[in-house]
Every structure is written in C-alpha cells, then in structure tokens.
Amino acid sequence: MILAAHENETIDSYLYDKSIGIKSDFNKGKDALIYLIEFLAESKAMAEPEGFEEQVRATKEFLAKIDANFTLLENGEIYALYQNKEGEYLDGPGLERVNSFACEDYKWHGEDIDYIKEMKITPLQFFNYKDELFLKQFQWVFDLRSNWKKILGLDSWRDILYYQFQ
Predict the structure, then answer these.
(1) Distances in Å between the alpha carbon of 34 and those of 18, 49, 99?
(2) pLDDT tens-place string over residues 13-40
(3) What pairs with residue 73 in β-bridges?
(4) Which of 85, 94, 129, 143 could crosslink 90 through cysteines, CB 3.0-4.6 Å?
(5) How far apart are CA 54 and CA 61, in angstroms?
C-alpha cells in the first residue's frame, strides 16, 4: 500500500481486460515506507521490537536492490475475491470501483506520512499527542505498533507473487 501511495493513478491492467491496476512513483513510495518504518523503530514501542528492527533492516536491504521508476499493482486476483452485499462476486465495473477506492486509500496514507514528516516531531511526541482529530486521522499508524506483522507485511517480500515488467 505505501509503495503505491505517491503520485498514484488507476490504470488498465496488463493482465486483465479492466482498469484494475494502480501505478505510482516507486522511489517516493520507497522513501515513504522507509521513513515510516524507521520512525516506528525509533519509537521503541513496537510489539516484538527485535523482530521489527530485523524486518526494517531486511526491508531496506530488499528495496535498495530495486531500480525502478514506478510501482505497478495488478490487483485482479485479489479483487476477484470481493463480493457485493448480495454475496455475488464483483463484475468489471465493481472491480474498477474497488480499485479506485484502494488508489485513494493509498494516496491518503502517503499524505499522512508526508504530514508526519512535515510536523518534524519525534515518535515519542507523536505517540503521546492527545488531540482527538489527530488520533482519529493517524489511527492506522497507532495500530501498527501492536499489529505491524499483519498490517505492514514486511516479512513477506519473498513469500508473495510479483512480476517485474521491464
């Protein structure tokens, strides 16, 4: 999600006959992800901190090897599992709407990370901030402290299927 958070747009899929791809600026996404995981590691408030710090190291090492201009998400197989309220699998327009929502969601996460950078506060200040609107906006970041394995997927770089289009 974070790798696809900057300058993203929905695009036609390379694999399916629908507009269910997302293309984004890889380097900006990579910088945002690295900033976020370093910020979280600095907080010393992560569940299983040694495991998290190892995943930060492994993630940075993995991403450093990639020379790319953009991230391309091919979401067809994931979206094909979505069902509407009636339990029917989504069709073409439904898949495209889901993709559009995902693209916006990723963009908001990227904007949140940019805002955290602009605030120039320490992780301790961030995690002790008590403003209700702030807490609501950044709830997803707070949730990472206890649930980073499930949400970030840092330990799955080699366990997922991915393609690289040259």
Answers:
(1) 32, 16, 25
(2) 888 778 889 999 999 999 999 999 999 9
(3) 22
(4) 94
(5) 11
